[in-house]
Specification:
Helices cover 50% and strands 22% of the residues. The chain has 148 residues and is of the alpha+beta class. The protein contains 3 helices and 6 strands. The longest helix is centred in the first third of the chain and has 36 residues. Helix 1 runs antiparallel to helix 2.
C-alpha cells in the first residue's frame, strides 16, 4: 500500500469538505445580504439570527478541517518502524486503519480505509504493537496482519 497516495487521497477528501463548507458559508452570506435588503420586523430578525448561527457553526467546522488538513500535511509518507505509529496503515482482521487524522472512511484502491486520530481509544491500544499482536477493544478482538 502506497502511503504517499493514501495521504493524498485523505488530503483531497479534506479539501473537498473545506470547499463544500466555504460554498455553504458564501451562500449563507449572500442569502443574508439579500434578506437584509427586502425584509423588516421580528420574523426577519429571527431569520437573520438563524443564518448567523448556522454561519458560526460552519466557520467552526471550517477551522477544525483546516487544523486537520495541517496535521495531515505533516504525516510521514514512508514507513519508519515495524511498530504501529502515527502515519502507519494497519491491516487487521477487522479492517484497515490509517493512523492519521479523524476523518470518515476513505476509499483507496477499492479498499475501505478508516482514518483515525492518534488520540482515538482504538489507536491508543494499537500504538507500538507489531504484526501478529492482538488487542481487544470494546469486546472485539483485533489481530494485526500487516503494517505499511
Amino acid at each position: 500500500m502506497d502511503r504517499k497516495q493514501l495521504k493524498q487521497t485523505v488530503l483531497n477528501t479534506i479539501q473537498n469538505q473545506i470547499n463544500n463548507i466555504q460554498l455553504q458559508i458564501t451562500s449563507l452570506t449572500h442569502d443574508a445580504q439579500n434578506d437584509a435588503k427586502s425584509s423588516a420586523g421580528d420574523k426577519h430578525e429571527t431569520g437573520l439570527a438563524m443564518m448567523h448561527l448556522e454561519q458560526e457553526k460552519l466557520n467552526t467546522k471550517l477551522l477544525q478541517l483546516l487544523n486537520i488538513q495541517q496535521t495531515a500535511l505533516k504525516l510521514p509518507e514512508t514507513k519508519l518502524t515495524k511498530k504501529v505509529a502515527i502515519g502507519s496503515v494497519v491491516k487487521t482482521n477487522k479492517g484497515i486503519f490509517y493512523i492519521s487524522v479523524p476523518l470518515q472512511m476513505v476509499h483507496y484502491q477499492s479498499l475501505a480505509v478508516f482514518c483515525v486520530s492518534v488520540h482515538a481509544p482504538l489507536t491508543q491500544q494499537l500504538l507500538n504493537k507489531q504484526i501478529k499482536d492482538k488487542i481487544t477493544f470494546n469486546s472485539i478482538s483485533y489481530e494485526i496482519i500487516d503494517i505499511f
